[in-house]
Amino acid sequence: KLYEREVPRSERMRSLGKMNRVPTLSRTDRLRFLLGYLDADAGERQAWKTSARELLAIHAAKVDDDLERSERRCLDENRDYGAFESGEWRGHFLKKRSDRAGGLSLEEARALANGGEAAYRMEPAADAIGEWKRANRKAKEGGPVPVAVLVKRSSSEGKIAFPKA
After folding, report:
1. Which strand (E) or helix (H) includes residue 123?
2. Which tens digit of pLDDT belongs to each residue from 14-64?
């Protein structure tokens, strides 16, 4: 977005807070960037600790938002997830992509539902969709990445597939 005048402080802080999610940037690099960024305004440079606290709060809120978003997205048909039906099962799966390890094709997801469970660690779940959402949230926090959820058509029971470690 282009502004006719100075970019509003709230927009700048939001952008900087989102930048904190980049895991390859060290804390030292982030602080160096922040101090260099704040050098443009003497008042902001003097109060850099206040700005740093504000950025950490924005970052924490954005991380929470990202985790909630991962729970919602895993049930949508999008570039990362797909839905399928096969026999008495319906479910969702993590799509196979060249830029990440793991994932299934639609055919592999259907084969999984039809007895191809040997290559995966299966966890039973009374509320399979709820557990699938929680597993995707935990994956964003560093846990194992689930590749599929299988739900019986007649109930909410099912199982979640994880790659064998």
Report:
1. strand 120-125
2. 888 888 878 788 889 888 888 888 887 788 889 889 988 988 898 888 888
Q: Which of 84, 86, 108, 111 is nearest to 96 (CA)?
A: 108
Residue type, 134: R
Instruction: Classify the C-alpha dihedral 165-155-69-106 as positive or negative.
Output: positive
Tokens of 47: 């109060």
Question: What is each CA distance from 139 to 49, 52, 134, 151, in whole angstroms?
Answer: 32, 28, 9, 20
Name the pTM for this structure: 0.68
C-alpha span between 129 and 19 (Å, rounded): 32
Q: Are β-strands 89-94 and 148-152 bridged in parallel, bridged antiparallel, or unpaired?
A: antiparallel
pLDDT tens by residue, 50-106: 988 988 898 888 888 888 888 888 888 888 999 999 989 999 999 998 888 789 999
Instruction: Sheet containing 81-86: give its strands across.
Output: 81-86, 89-94, 148-152, 158-163, 120-125
Other beta carbons within 10 angstroms of residue 39's beta carbon come to 11
